[in-house]
């Protein structure tokens, strides 16, 4: 994935104008395990949302496999996002009226995967993420750490090209943070999925292979 001169301005040409991102140029190789870091307001979540097509850049281009994502219509981008991008949010965003098994398989059902394949994939991920014993429970019946693991399973179930995780450890204790990062690293290595975090959690940074630091909407470090 290549980002070329990505900028984002909120409330342009008004007294409230905010330049959230300024001329971001980055390349992400397949299979990366990378964190966008920086203080609150640095632009890391905005950049993650633009990479995932949840927000539109004010200017610039994003290419993935020779496809210009920034040129897609909203409908085309929504379809691309469904098929190729998995999201892990701080708030989990599980569907309360669906069981854990149904939550994990939700995206696969939307994409019309075969039922046998869906069940097989859910069982496979349940073992990796250690949630085999809660598949028939509802989100309200399990802990926050378990909900986050279910959210990860749902994000990777349909084998997307890219996983985007916004502060995934923010609501977790140190033990569950360590477990979550280990599992994401395992999925990254086993399935070669690209994982990009937005986080300032020291543990997440320590586990990342690449850290991109933002300040006032600009990249100040990339190592």
Describe the structure.
This protein is of the alpha/beta class. Helices cover 36% and strands 26% of the residues. It has seven helices and ten strands. The chain has helices at residues 44-51, 74-84, 100-110, 115-128, 144-156, 174-191, 202-207; strands at residues 2-10, 18-27, 33-37, 59-64, 67-68, 85-88, 162-166, 194-198, 210-215, 218-222. The strands form two sheets. Strands 6-7-8-3-9-10 form a six-stranded mixed β-sheet, sandwiched between helices. The protein has a four-stranded antiparallel β-sheet with strand order 2-1-4-5, covered by helices on one side. A hairpin with a 2-residue loop joins strand 9 (210-215) and strand 10. Helix 3 (100-110) crosses helix 4, helix 3 (100-110) runs parallel beside helix 5 and helix 5 runs parallel beside helix 6 (174-191). The chain is globular. It starts with a strand and ends with a strand. The mean pLDDT is 93.
Summarize the structure.
With 223 residues, this protein is α/β, with parallel strands linked by helices. Helices cover 36% and strands 26% of the residues.
């Amino acid at each position: 994935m290549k980002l070329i001169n990505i900028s984002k301005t909120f409330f342009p040409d008004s007294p409230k104008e905010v330049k959230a991102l300024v001329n971001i140029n980055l390349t992400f190789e397949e299979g990366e395990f990378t964190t966008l870091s920086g203080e609150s307001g640095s632009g890391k979540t905005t950049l993650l949302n633009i990479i995932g097509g949840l927000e539109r850049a004010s200017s610039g281009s994003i290419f993935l496999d020779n496809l210009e994502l920034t040129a897609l219509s909203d409908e085309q981008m929504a379809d691309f996002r469904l098929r190729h991008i998995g999201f892990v949010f701080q708030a989990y965003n599980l569907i309360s009226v669906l069981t854990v098994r149904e939550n994990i398989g939700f995206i696969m059902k939307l994409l019309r995967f075969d039922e046998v394949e869906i069940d097989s994939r859910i069982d496979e991920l349940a073992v990796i993420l250690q949630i085999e014993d809660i598949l028939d429970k509802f989100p309200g019946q399990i802990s926050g750490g378990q909900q986050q693991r279910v959210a990860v399973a749902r994000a990777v179930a349909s084998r997307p090209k890219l996983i985007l995780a916004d502060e995934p450890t923010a609501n977790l204790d140190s033990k569950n943070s360590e477990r979550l990062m280990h599992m994401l690293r395992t999925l990254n290595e086993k399935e070669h999925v690209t994982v990009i975090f937005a986080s300032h959690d020291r543990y997440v940074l320590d586990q990342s292979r690449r850290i991109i630091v933002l300040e006032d909407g600009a990249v100040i470090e990339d190592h």
